Amino acid sequence: MREKGSTDHPGKEKRNDPLDMECLVGYILLTGVLLSVALLSISFAWRWVRVGRFRFEHSIVGMNFFEFISSTFRKMASRSFRPRLFLNMGIGVLMLTPFVRVLASVVYFAVVEHNWKYTLFTAFVLSVLTYSLFLR
Amino acid sequence: MSFHVLFLVSIVAGFVGAISGMGGGVVLIPVLTFLGLDIKHAIAVSIVSVIATSSGSASAYVRDRITNLKVGMFLEMFTIVGALAGAAITLISGRRILFILFGIVLLSSWVALFRQRNEGWQPAAYQDVFSRWLELQGSYYDRSVQQTIAYRGVRAYLGGPLMFGAGLIAGLLGIGAGALKVLIHDLVMGLPPKVSTTTSNLIIGVTALAGTSVYLAAGMIDPGLAAPIILGVVFGAFMGTRLLVRLTNQTVRHIFLGVLLVLGFEMIIRGFWRVGG
User: Fold this and answer.
1) Is residue A5 part of a domain?
2) Residue A57 lies in a domain
3) Domain containing A113: what range?
4) Is residue A45 part of a domain?
């Protein structure tokens, strides 16, 4: 049965424009989750090959998110590749995914849509998230 | 707790969460505490996995243009502040109260789902000035009826503050609180069910990140515990969405209503009589 509020559709769905907000947000989320899952899978596979078990035992204490990410990157840059670093990167990438999505939304509303109202709203969300990620 | 147990439990939680549309946290936390994990640590690792399940499903819904991004981005302002407050409260709360509260939220979700089971959606006849200013109207193409459904979001002045409460519960209990968000979208803001569910999914990721940051700062995110749970719920959710298309909505909803009821009472009983985990 046809619901109220419905209109006849012209026959095809909206085109996926590469500069479209929905595509941008959708692909950021998809890329973030897939990358995170890939990094976590690599870390577990590597750990198993190396020590014969999957379980990691280390903790993140006394640092905020950005310190956690930068310390992981510093260790990777010094070529001390270890399964644990891939695990940390997987969690870090996952946490960055919604953050990058909000950042991209601020830029999109400001630069592409010139919608200052929503630029302000998303900038507020970004500021609160940034503040929270600096908590320690 | 071994990797295999965590992984299997998380697959089941992700699977049940996906077929019910409520995320994995509502199943994951009761089971993890039942297996002996402290409830605060269960909440902390659960909320990280909520980012994964929410972002994964939101990515598809957003690209399908069902999600209303403006509704989501307006309401996120309220949910993230609520999540920060909720997570901070958890750190100082007693475990007993968390068990009882979790049970109450599960039972409230049961009531919300039970109410929704046969209700049809009616579009709002009039859009208030504030919601019009916020540009909360939209449309999406519904493949099941092969039509474009146009709608107008209303009562944003009420929806925003209520979403603070939903965010508070999400941060407090480490869940997506999707049932509450959907309820606010449906009953208060007049959004169609598909738009409610998919927009709620988008909001959940950002809300969960705010909560996660508090638990991370408190040193409660154990990567060795969180990682297998993230992988498990993602795989479980993937399998759940595949199976979802083969099951009828009625079957899924009946199974989940039963699970919610049992887990809700179980958590309240454990809160009153003993604190497990």
Assistant:
1) no
2) no
3) 21-50+62-133
4) yes
Cβ–Cβ contact B84 with A under 8 A: yes
Q: Any CB–CB contact under 8 A between B59 and chain A?
A: yes
Q: Which residues of chain B have pLDDT under 70?
A: 20-23, 116-120, 244-253, 274-277
H helices of chain B, where? Answer: 3-20, 25-34, 39-63, 69-92, 95-116, 129-133, 156-173, 178-183, 193-217, 223-244, 249-273
In terms of residues, how long is chain A?
A: 136
B230 touches chain A (CB under 8 A): yes
The whole-angstrom separation of Cα A20 and Cα A16 is 7
Measure the CA angle with vertex B177, ends B174 and B180; round to 5°.
Answer: 155
Amino acid, res. B173: L
CB-closest option in B58, B210, B219 to A61: B219
Q: Which residues contact A78 (CB under 8 A, 6 or more apart)?
A: none
Collect all residues of chain B within an 8 Å Cβ-Cβ radius of residue A90.
227, 230
pLDDT of residue A3: 43
pLDDT at B277: 47
What's the structural domain count of chain B? 1
ipTM associated with this complex: 0.88
B38 φ/ψ sector (left φ>0, alpha ψ -120 to 50, else beta): beta
CB B25 within 8 A of CB B176: yes
A57/B224 Cβ within 8 A? yes
